[in-house]
Description:
Structural class: alpha/beta
Order of helices and strands: EEHEHEHEHHHEEHHEHEHHH
CATH class of the largest domain: Alpha Beta
CATH architecture of the largest domain: 3-Layer(aba) Sandwich
Distance between the termini: 41 Å
Largest sheet: 7 strands, mixed
Strand order of the largest sheet: 1-3-2-4-5-8-9
Oligomer: single chain
CATH superfamily of the largest domain: Alpha/Beta hydrolase fold, catalytic domain
Strand content: 15-25%
Number of strands: 9
Number of domains: 2
CATH topology of the largest domain: Rossmann fold
Amino acid sequence: xxIELAFEAVGNGPPxxxxxxxxxxxxxxxxxxxxxxxxxxxxxxxxxxxxASPRGQGxxxxxxxxxxxxxxxxxxxxxxxxxxxxxxGKTAMTLALEHPQAISGVAVIDIAPERYNDQFSPYMMxxxxxxxxAATGRNEARQVLVRNQGGDTPVLDFLMQNLQRHxxxxxxxxxxxxxxxxxxxxxxxxxxxxxxxYEGPALFLAGTDSAYVQSESHARIARLFPQAHxxxxxxxxxxxxxxxxxxxxxxxxxxxxxxxxxxxxxxxAQAALATR
Length: 276
């Protein structure tokens, strides 16, 4: 059953929905949303089991796409453009392939429609090993995460954004158990969609320092999204919006401008990506 997602919205103009990645929240994309709010009404939903959205047992991409479809219908958005990063990118792709009539275009940031190795369960174990309610401060909580993880990494600072204070106690903004139980679904991509095709405008952006979109991914992207334009963002890893927000905005604005103008893509998807 679809979940009614919590969201924030900024700006005025045609609707644009941005879907965050795993362990994130809509607010992580606030800087990008505010920059695009001069021309668009930008919606920043929290995915189920994330942020302020309700909890749910399942986290299939079909379920999460239906959550976004429900948001579109409740807010009476007229075929919004949908941008998704990582987990949000897979949700956006699923929405485009299963409900193409609901949107007018999709932009996918540093993810491909394929299965990835599980890199996240160790972080889930570290987070679940922290008694958040007993923590006396954020520094203490972070030190416990460092010990549980076996060392300090930049990802821990990102995870710490999910630790919030409720009166005198800390708690996670994530449904850790549900996310952990659904990790195999989150690492994969619905196999039954492998013969689907989204004919609308599509943009795929990949960080040059990221390993998420490999050369073998290009043919699969082009098959599912034949109108795709693919582009690399230099000096960016998986968190493109954090590493290179200016370059990401330029790429998004260029695509949005072409979408508004109704300009067809200039080259086949594989050729566009190969030349960067």
